[in-house]
Amino acid sequence: MLVRLNSPFTRAFSSTSFKKSSNKYQKIASLLQKRTIVTQMETNQPKTFSNQNIIPRLPIPTLKETAERYKKSLLPLLSTSDYNRAANAVDEFVKEGGFAEVLQKRLYEVDKSEKYNWIETIWLNKAYLEWRDPSLINVNWWVEFNDPATGILKNPPPEGQISEFQIDRAAGFISNLLTFNDMINNELLPPDQTRQGPLCMDQYTKQFGATRIADFPSDRIITTWPATAKHIIVMFKDQIFKVQVLGGGGERVPIKEIKRQLQFVVDQVNNTTELQPPIGLLTGEHRDTWATARKNLESSSAENKISFEAIDTALFGIALDDYPTGTDVDISHHNSFHAYNGRNRWFDKALQIIVANNGRAGVNGEHSPSDAVIPGRMFDYISSNEPAQDPPNVSSIELSPPQYLKWVVDTSIMNTIQQAQINIQAAIDNVDGVLLHYNEYGADWLKNAKISPDAFVQMALQLAYYKHYREPCATYESASTRGFLHGRTETVRTCSVDTVAFTKAFCDPNVKKDEKISLLTKAIKSHIEYMISATNGRGVDRHLLGLRCQIRDEEEKSKATLFNDPSYVQSMYFKISSSNMSPGLNFHCGFGAVVPDGYGICYVIHKDKFKISINSYKKCKETDSTIFRKVLKDSFDELRELLSS
């Protein structure tokens, strides 16, 4: 449970700096679309990875500062007696000459041995690769793009057919993604930075050609940079094709040539009388089940090995769905999340673009290689550049025909696939996911009121939860640590003494408005202070995870009093797991709840609105995403009324 509790979507860096960076990307995109040969000199930008050698290593916090911040985070969650017991366990652990000092020294040794930072390998393994529950819903994230300016098809083809509009849009996405990959490979992306300094760009190298491999005792991840593969995989009706999208020397081709390749796939499948089994379903199964099946498939046939290699090395995936999603985003976003039945997907690819036959499109992404802000940057790029234009210097070559991937399977594998379909459908049927697109106000109004938009949304979540359940809950917001070399995320423990004081006062009719505003201001200030500490590598959760991973045996475990106290797990039982994906100009997105009786909440803050996804599980009688959406909307309304007064 610990691993999953620490692995939600990551928070984007500040909207202001992100938008400045976005303008630079658009400048380069404009040059590319004008068929200008772009060089570093022409764009007058430093190379993508030019700042890597000046970005500092992630610090290891002192035991004292972690202990104090950790104890403070326990106060709103525990009774007085439970808190006193937990605080004594913490103090015993970190006392001078205590066992924590032994673990801290070992962590320093880890830092010396790791090339980039002390938590990188630990985090990848514990948060992702060792996690054995299915990646579908539990790990993977989803994105649904805004519809193009022309809209989607009002009268799409019936189920079972493909539309020309769908092929056009998919080909445009492919071409734009190839352009973005070119910019990464050639270091034409300007380095990201905030007012505090440059940000690590390493995660950009883990987007294309990235795949998670089911294995024992933990999974593996394949990434490559420069990503020079010439093919992608395309799925249609559960059939998988290796599709060449670049010339043998990496030459770019016109979009019409990519369309021809996609149409070839569709025609081949429609004219095939004996379809291949839906192997992709296995990627949505329990990781041990999938690892066993994959090893059996690889060992039983050379043809299977060839098929796996084509999938694993592909730049990214494309799923062409032979059905419309409908126009209601509250329903259609589930197609990106889980396809309603888990079919026609390969959930192990880091990037898989999904296009329905009415043209509505999205992405399903495997979380291990990177945090979502990086692909989010790509998605804003590819969708803002619709309709796609041919890249500069296209070649008139004709690409090799798509290769139909074949599978040799036995009865055991077919039984596993059939059971996978049952298990996946049960997991999907348990998902309770809704959207809240709140259009009454946004970042501009909050900034005029001198309020941090992100902290405000976090306070609204705290208020909504307290109003609905009449108690606080442990809350996770991810903070980016990309200010450090190979930094990923740290936890912001949003629930605090100050947020509880505010939410209680807000719900008390005897408390005056001025007092409520004062308490809200104080809670926001506390949240910002924690966010700054976390962003600077001085949060609680990553340090404690690092220390815990230095324990060698049961005898040592008994000495780690902090971890043995029940408050440790209790404080990480995040009933709200949240992430800010702003600016997200051209999409909305989400992920699953991380505990059975909690909510997974992803939000995008625009100038004049909030776009929020809320996910929980139907089997839990205590949670209801539709009801929570209503309470959250009311909280936004009531907070505006409070601040306006």
Automatic annotation (TrEMBL):
Q: Does the keyword Metal-binding apply?
A: no
Matching entries from Gene3D superfamilies are given as: Chloramphenicol acetyltransferase-like domain, Choline/Carnitine o-acyltransferase, domain 2
Enzyme active site = H367
Sorted UniProt keywords: Acyltransferase, Transferase
Q: Origin, by domain of life? A: Eukaryota
Choline/carnitine acyltransferase domain segment(s): 58-633
Q: Which GO terms describe its molecular function?
A: acyltransferase activity
Q: Which InterPro entries match?
A: Carn_acyl_trans (IPR000542), CAT-like_dom_sf (IPR023213), Cho/carn_acyl_trans (IPR039551), Cho/carn_acyl_trans_2 (IPR042231)
The Swiss-Prot or TrEMBL record describes its family as follows: Belongs to the carnitine/choline acetyltransferase family.
**Which PANTHER family is this protein grouped with?**
CARNITINE O-ACYLTRANSFERASE (PTHR22589), CHOLINE_CARNITINE ACYLTRANSFERASE DOMAIN-CONTAINING PROTEIN (PTHR22589:SF107)
Official protein name in the record: Acyltransferase ChoActase/COT/CPT
Q: What species was this sequence derived from?
A: Gigaspora margarita
